[in-house]
From TrEMBL:
<dbReference type="InterPro" id="IPR000312">
    <property type="entry name" value="Glycosyl_Trfase_fam3"/>
</dbReference>
<dbReference type="InterPro" id="IPR036320">
    <property type="entry name" value="Glycosyl_Trfase_fam3_N_dom_sf"/>
</dbReference>
<dbReference type="GO" id="GO:0004645">
    <property type="term" value="F:1,4-alpha-oligoglucan phosphorylase activity"/>
</dbReference>
<dbReference type="GO" id="GO:0005829">
    <property type="term" value="C:cytosol"/>
</dbReference>
<dbReference type="Pfam" id="PF07831">
    <property type="entry name" value="PYNP_C"/>
</dbReference>
<dbReference type="InterPro" id="IPR013102">
    <property type="entry name" value="PYNP_C"/>
</dbReference>
<keyword id="KW-0808">Transferase</keyword>
<comment type="similarity">
    <text>Belongs to the thymidine/pyrimidine-nucleoside phosphorylase family.</text>
</comment>
<dbReference type="InterPro" id="IPR036566">
    <property type="entry name" value="PYNP-like_C_sf"/>
</dbReference>
<dbReference type="GO" id="GO:0006213">
    <property type="term" value="P:pyrimidine nucleoside metabolic process"/>
</dbReference>
<dbReference type="InterPro" id="IPR017459">
    <property type="entry name" value="Glycosyl_Trfase_fam3_N_dom"/>
</dbReference>
<dbReference type="GO" id="GO:0009032">
    <property type="term" value="F:thymidine phosphorylase activity"/>
</dbReference>
<dbReference type="GO" id="GO:0006206">
    <property type="term" value="P:pyrimidine nucleobase metabolic process"/>
</dbReference>
<keyword id="KW-0328">Glycosyltransferase</keyword>
<protein>
    <recommendedName>
        <fullName>thymidine phosphorylase</fullName>
        <ecNumber>2.4.2.4</ecNumber>
    </recommendedName>
</protein>
<dbReference type="Pfam" id="PF02885">
    <property type="entry name" value="Glycos_trans_3N"/>
</dbReference>
<dbReference type="Pfam" id="PF00591">
    <property type="entry name" value="Glycos_transf_3"/>
</dbReference>
Amino acid sequence: MRAVDIIMKKRSGEELSREEIEFLIGGYVAGTIPDYQVSAWAMAVYFQGMTPAETGVLTEVMLKSGNVIDLSGISGPFVDKHSTGGVGDKTSLILAPLVASLGIKDPMMSGRALGHTGGTLDKLESIPGYRTNLTVEEFREIIQKDGFAMTGQTKEIAPADRLLYALRDVTATVESIPLITASILSKKVAEGAEGLVFDVKYGSGAFMKDPEDGEKLARSLVNTGAAMGKRIIALLTDMNEPLGNMMGNFLEVEESLDCLEGKGPKDLMEVTLELAARMVVLGGKAKTAQEGRAMCEAALASGKPRELFLNNVRSQGGNPDQLLELRGRYRSPFSMEIRAPRSGYISHIDAYQIGLAGVHLGVGRNRTEDVVSPTAGIQFHKRYGDLVQSGDIVMTVWGKSDQSLKDAKPLIEGALQIQDSKPALRTLIRKEIAS
């Protein structure tokens, strides 16, 4: 078997066999098949696609390239959530303790910010002392104690994905639904979760710009995951605007605490509760999403999820008392205000431009080795649909330096649109797709 023949076969639009996929991916991980041949294959997949069977095999092969976390000995059920990425998306920090308070264990492996999208690990690491590089044994112990743990991907988990993701990033082959599906599921299944809820985002600040493409990805994730024996639900959610009133690492930790205290912004609470409700259903604690949501709302009112979150901060090396003391005060000394250039209604705050501004400010990164700022970010005082007068403060912005503010300002001002009439209500959740 030769890699070049596999590339030619896929270039012609033919279906690859299990043996061919195993040969290619196994050889890449072992170092016997070079980057340039796998790059050519990835580009062929980008243009020709893969059948559901091929996507399933690729996911399985990537999963088996590493270890699967053994959660035996810990009572379940185990359910996790994954977002395809956005701006201001801090739902993971709220969901994990929320569902844990209802008896559902969440073994959460998360990623870092890259490009315009934020990263859960960067947000957590803005809490002084918080560790996200847990060993597998620490991960298990904290799940057993707190009901959830949040860590980064270890070298032992899906090494094929780590290699292939880095290659796709520099060869313009990221936006391939089969490759995205295999990348996400190989990592998520390796966590040991029995059920998975996917928040598949579409819009300017999302990976998938069009809802139709978002739905294709959601269906691919649901169908491939179900074929692997997992219970899957996907929600298709709007990411044309930033989610919540805060964008930034520590700022989003603060807003997550607000939500755990029942004081979060309406859009963030809506998306979080709908995702959590599906996790409760997959965990067998509720029969319908409506019942699951009611349970989540009651749990938030009890204060238990907030207590579990603070317990987890302590378990993973942070100091919950220090976290609460820093709340509202942990800010960069470099700041500016963005004011409304005219009177009217805010009709759009473009999530993509805000995310790019975040990279300049120090919230995100262009390269994996870039260092992020815990205290940079944006607070939105006015949001979509709000009436503003000329000169009103719409945003407060914090950056890692004065220069970062200057670099970000044109993007932030360009993201803000104001019109004379009140815009139509946004539909945050477009569709549910289940296995």
